[in-house]
Amino acid sequence: MEQTGISQEQRDTLRRIKTISDLKMVKVYHLFGGDGSVMGVLAYYGDSVINLCNADACFAELFDRIAEVYAREAEEKEIIADEETLRFLKDACVFPTDEFQKCLADYEEQDAPSFLPKAFSYLYVLPIVKFIMEGIYRQKEEKIQFESRTGQWFGRGILEAVMEEQLRRFPFVILETVEGSYEVTVQNVLKPGNPLKVLIRFGDYGMAATYEDRFFLIRGSLLLRMDQERAVVSHSMREGERTLEEWEENCEEAAGMLPTREVRRLTMEKGDWRALCLPWGDKLFLAGEGRERLRVYASEGDGVTVSHVSHYQIPEEWGEQARFCLSALRLYEREDAAELHLLEPGAPGSSIWREKYSGRYFGRNRHEQRASTEGAI
Question: Is 41 helix (H, G, I), strand (E, B) or coil?
Fold first, then answer.
């Protein structure tokens, strides 16, 4: 099926990737720079060469195609590849399917989600927006205290807060531009009718938010950088050319906290969990066993818990700064139901997960599950 919303150049690249055959040489490489790490794939096939990194739009498609072609053609001829590359290509074709199928035993597949992402993105987007607004008002020597409950409907709603014993209302709109990227507009910030624009991007290595108030010339950035050992938050705010706030701190560890029981069951209890508290109230849970790593970004509110779960494998030669995504999912939980959204893995990622699982939805009615369990006792 032809993809929409992409450039003509990307379409041409995708068509080229789909025709790759007669593979002669492949190299998976990894570079480190000031802006983080870069993973790339260089391949020589037929009389052509292709070279993309994970910053390119078609990298995941290239990696999957190279893994597929290599698995097929390497049985018939010699293809030049070093040991590191061979391990990555092998990982692309490995996923514990039987184990994961057992985890899905209590779920039924659905054609469409009941927990629509657009209706619940506010649970993990608005805490960041509130944190930014608190910083802005703090610089104006004003204290703002948000009400715990948020009135919203599919990404549109009103934030309520108390300032100087008066109730203030801040209408907002959340738009998801691409998977994991959100554009938020909040009105009435600092003065009636004044908009604050916030762009938020969730990624494999953390979260990045930038914001701007054009009337008051306020702009800033809020960054979360994560690895298996720690989570670091940094914040910078400027008014015109003047720096208002600039700091960086490690997130505190919370003893005794765990992801939800269902998250632990779905991740097959791989290793001991560590919990880190993010400044805006969300939680980050980390676990690891051998070369495998698990990361859970958890948000909750209005009786719903949303857990973003990523399962990685670490290459022995490259260490923690490189990773191979085995699976990615989002779990919605409330008292009466739970629903799994199986997501696209990061790049490079498991071609088996991408082909067999990503884009599927599974739901479970907890009342029915409880009744059947009680009836069996």
Answer: strand
Instruction: Scan for tokens 């490259």, then name that residue.
Output: 318
For the beta carbon of residue 209, count every other beta carbon within 10 angstroms: 23
Distances in Å between the Cα of 351 and the Cα atoms of 72, 82, 109, 287 are 14, 20, 21, 23
The three-class DSSP label of residue 58 is coil
Question: What would the two tokens of residue 364 be?
Answer: 């479970």
**The dihedral of CA 226, 266, 369, 275: what is its sign?**
negative
Angle at 294 between CA 354 and CA 67, to 5 degrees: 30
Q: What's the CA gap between 362 and 355, in Å, rounded?
A: 16
Of residues 268, 267, 377, 246, the one with CA closest to residue 329: 267
- Coil, strand or helix at 245: strand
Entry pTM: 0.82
Residue 254 contacts by C-beta under 8 Å, 6 or more apart in sequence?
275, 276, 277, 283
Which class for 151: exposed (0-12), middle (13-18), buried (19 or more C-beta within 10 A)? exposed
Longest dimension (CA), the chain: 76
- In this structure, the strands spanning 231-239 and 218-226 are antiparallel
Omega before 348 within 30 of 0, i.e. cis: yes
Residue closest to 41 by CA, chosen among 25, 26, 22? 26
The three-point CA angle 1-204-92 to 5° equals: 55
pLDDT tens digits, one per residue of 320-377: 656 778 899 999 999 999 999 999 887 677 778 888 899 999 998 765 554 434 433 3
Phi/psi at 18 (nearest 5 deg)? -65, -20
**Tokens matching residue 165:** 């014993």
- Cα-Cα-Cα-Cα torsion 280, 283, 289, 294, nearest 10 degrees, comes to -80
- 172, two tokens: 């907002």
User: Are residues 228 and 220 in contact, defined by beta-carbon separation less than 8 angstroms?
Assistant: no
CA distance 237 to 173: 23
